[in-house]
Amino acid sequence: MNTQLVDSLIQVIRSLPDEERALLGEKLSTADPIEVSTDRLETEEAVGVFLALGRNAASGQLKNTAVNHDRSIR
Asked: How many Cα atoms within 13 Å fall on the side-chain side of residue 6?
């Protein structure tokens, strides 16, 4: 896994409110990384948690994002 991605995920998780961070921790601690959920309810809930990360994300730190965008995703 890309270390920049890991760092970004950690930053997003740290920016979550305590309740949401605890919920995410619960979900991750019980998740089976090999098994893929086929339960539609669980899938929708997981998508909801993922979308919440974007709503509560810390603001970007990249200056002049239009020019530096490609450098931020390497």
From this structure: 3
